[in-house]
Write a structure and sequence with these properties.
2 copies of one chain form a homodimer. Chain A starts with a helix and ends with a strand. Chain A has 9 helices and 16 strands. In chain A, β10 and β11 form a beta hairpin. Chain A has about 300 residues and is α+β, with helices and mostly antiparallel strands.
């Protein structure tokens, strides 16, 4: 089997070792598993180029510091790990995850400050949270009755796998025959859903929650596109009730881009098709991938 | 190497396979890791007997149902997995973890309702969160400024690894030169700390938080001991300020039993030594391990 075949389904970096994704295993005793004591980031490769890679690395390094973790490598070394994985896989469209865990508690040594932090990374074919066909049609959303874990407990800007609330929301969406769910905070303001930020177009202005959410790179790209094209946009508190009466609603994620929503809690948004502003921003998002200032090519040779 | 030697540091059951603890690995792509989408329980073995095993299994099965997970085995099969691991290890004092994860998202199949849930279990030598010597002296506690993840987001009675808030509290304790931390809820009431429940003796009555906490089996044992020995005890809201003025404070956990606290936020509790009621309850807790109705012997032959 050639290397390309072996890694074509994906490749993983495990604390120094590279393996095909099917063989990727981590220690059962890693506190990244046993305490979800970790941070991570996800960047994607599109048409053979990383998209806004340095910004993802900036965020990842910032999160690492916030959790008082320490990367075993510098920025160059980290970049090298990611490029190597993508090159091995040969994937031109890929989902690239990097995760740093607190590490393993060895017998007799339970002080987390002394653990050796562990770096994992993996590359798999690009993940569509919502398929392009379903994005064309638009999807259904509910406002979950579950509250998002508050910032006072876990900082959402430090990307984490505390998804218990988001998974509950996802199951609630299934129960109500919807595609996915957005969670609210204790004040009834919209936060985020499982892996995405939310936008609403209200009287010509694009609104997105300001606080209690991950500061998504796709969200940032949309806000910048809006600004460049004179579309008023604002990060602010967004009451859940605003979603119901919005003219357009969409979700943003690295795993899918700009995803139109055509119903919220069973109520139709606009005319029940993806709205004009949403469609335009979705086009601009993919067009941005050709912008040399955002795209870092992978050398596959 | 004999089997006993091979497994003497611990043994793990991994979705059907048994390996020495040092070889225990789980798939990187398990959503138990990538989403902390799982529940678990911990029971201990003392002097060759499981302690209150059926109650731990009751709680685990209840948690599994609450997350809409499904065990791949019935109660007998689960019990068999745990007994087999302890027997292989030969350990007479052991910490026994069982974990059920949502499982792995295979390419093309991202609906969590269709994942094959994965059962893991492991046995290691008994874990002392606080060593018996430190328990004799008593430890220092702080009331953390971090809020415990609220019940509205993640149900604390379904044992989970959403420890981001607890780890922040633990680091805050380190920064303030204390041993560990208890977190409060949005109303300033005490909840729990990293792996333990909290008790305070106030004017002769033992108080422990009623809501927003794991319903610990050690906590239950203490409440039952108190009742049997005419020590007034009550599960109720416990404002953090009450801890400061309590006559005695202690923590309870499967990983250590009844652990005396001698200072809270730097203020001495009582006379700076473990209090009389605390010491008595600690003795009763370990004495309960000889009660045949609580102890299930392991057949090591």
């Amino acid at each position: 089997m050639t290397e390309q075949t072996q890694y074509s389904a994906g490749a993983a970096y495990l604390h120094g070792e590279v393996v095909p994704i099917a063989d990727a295993r981590i220690p059962l005793l890693d506190t990244g598993f046993l305490r979800s004591d970790l941070t991570y980031d996800v960047v994607h490769v599109w048409k053979g180029c990383f998209f806004r890679l340095e910004e993802h690395l900036d965020r990842f390094e910032r999160s690492v510091g916030r959790l008082r973790l320490k990367l075993p490598t510098d920025r160059d070394g980290l970049r090298q790990v990611l490029f190597d994985l993508v090159k091995r896989s040969g994937l031109r469209g890929a989902y690239v995850n990097m995760t740093l865990t607190r590490g393993v508690a060895n017998a007799g040594q339970r002080d987390p400050r002394l653990f050796e932090n562990r770096l994992y990374a993996y590359v798999v074919p690009f993940v569509w949270m919502v398929s392009p066909e379903d994005q064309d049609r638009g999807i259904s959303l509910i406002v979950s009755s579950i509250q998002r874990i508050p910032t006072q407990s876990v900082d959402p800007t430090v990307k984490n796998f505390h998804w218990g609330d988001l998974v509950r929301g996802q199951y609630e969406a299934f129960d109500r025959a919807a595609r996915t769910a957005v969670l609210v905070d204790a004040n009834g303001n919209v936060t985020e859903g499982p892996g995405f930020n939310v936008f609403a177009l209200v009287h010509g202005t694009l609104l997105t929650p300001e606080a209690g959410v991950l500061e998504g790179i796709t969200r940032r790209t949309v806000l910048e596109s809006a600004q460049q094209h004179d579309q008023p946009a604002q990060a602010c508190a967004v009451p859940a009730t605003v979603l119901m009466t919005a003219h357009e609603v969409f979700l943003t994620s690295t795993a899918g881009g700009v995803m139109p929503v055509i119903s919220v809690d069973g109520r139709q948004i606009g005319d029940g098709r993806p709205g004009m502003v949403t469609r335009r921003l979705r086009e601009l998002y993919w067009a941005a991938h050709d912008d040399a200032s955002y795209a870092t090519p992978v050398d596959y040779d």
